[in-house]
Design goal:
The structure is a single chain. This protein is an all-alpha fold. The protein has one domain (3-260). The protein is 61% helix and 0% strand. α4 (86-110) packs across α5. It starts with a helix and ends in an 8-residue tail after the last helix. Bound molecules: zinc ion (ZN) (2 copies). The site of one zinc ion has 5 residues, from α4 and α5. Residues 121, 176-177, 200, 204 line the site of one zinc ion.
Length: 265
């Protein structure tokens, strides 16, 4: 397999582009809460992040490909020592990547240095499908680089498993941020196992009690299991972060430099 082919197998930008185009259109049609002009401004603010996200993802994917191939060649990881059918290893592998991502997300909220970068994603006060790629470019390294390499290293996973994880997880990343109303019965049924959009929105609430909850991207089971699951009705959620609740703190340049400055000024 060529390097570009391997990279595109674990880099699911193409899925994200299709889904964001679809949901951004649906948001225009189905949600009349925000004027088109406001939505356009919001997209323009978030768009530069997308460019950096796209380039950053591709660059780190090359690093991830080489690292995982090295780990596989040296047969490092738990699954090399357990005899299981390939399809079970694949399903378990996807679940384990999601669990490691859960713990990294939890760390991102609890280690102040990492939070300074991660809070850029949380700063959005009017979330929509474009919020998915609103994240500090240096943070991509933390998720896409460190978290994935550690997950594959511990469990002995390969590029196919990681690629499958991103095919499954990318729709979650986009839909979790969509600015549409989702019925609460979804939270009481599917919400026992997977992260529904309303459950992820709880994670984006300004109240710190709720910000530090519902960390899971795909399987909300991790939050239920490790005691960080919380619920708040979507109508009571105020999105964003108090420290960024001002238009001048919502611009691309401000957000880009925000990890390195005193934001309370
Ligand atoms: Zn978070
Ligand atoms: Zn989010």
């Amino acid at each position: 397999m060529e390097l570009v082919e391997k990279v595109s197998n674990i880099d699911s930008n193409y899925i994200a582009i299709v889904l964001i185009a679809l949901f951004f259109s649906l948001e225009q049609i189905l949600n009349t809460q925000l004027s088109f002009l406001k939505r356009k401004q919001h997209l323009l603010q978030n768009f530069p992040f997308y460019i950096l996200f796209f380039v950053g993802n591709f660059a780190w994917a090359i690093f991830v490909v080489f690292s995982i191939e090295w780990l596989n060649e040296n047969q490092i990881g738990l699954f090399y020592y357990i005899k299981l059918p390939v399809w079970i290893k694949l399903i378990l592998g996807v679940a384990m990547i999601d669990m490691v991502t859960y713990w990294f997300h939890r760390m991102a909220h609890n280690i102040h240095f990492v939070w300074r970068f991660h809070r850029v994603h949380h700063s959005d006060t009017s979330m929509d499908s474009s919020t998915y790629f609103r994240g500090h470019p240096l943070e991509i390294f933390f998720w896409f680089g460190v978290s994935n390499i550690i997950a594959t290293g511990i469990f002995g996973l390969d590029l196919i498993t990681l690629g499958l994880y991103y095919v499954i997880a990318t729709p979650f990343f986009v839909i979790e941020h969509v600015n549409l109303k989702f019925p609460s019965w979804l939270d009481k049924t599917l919400g026992w196992v997977i992260t529904t959009p309303n459950l992820h929105k709880v994670h984006h609430d300004q109240d710190e009690f709720y910000t530090n909850s519902n960390y899971a991207d795909v399987f909300i089971i991790w939050d239920r299991l490790f005691g960080t699951f919380k619920y708040k009705h979507p109508n009571d959620i105020k999105l964003g972060l108090k420290e960024f609740d001002h238009p001048k703190k919502q611009t691309f340049w401000y957000l880009l430099k925000s990890p390195f400055i005193n934001i309370n000024k």
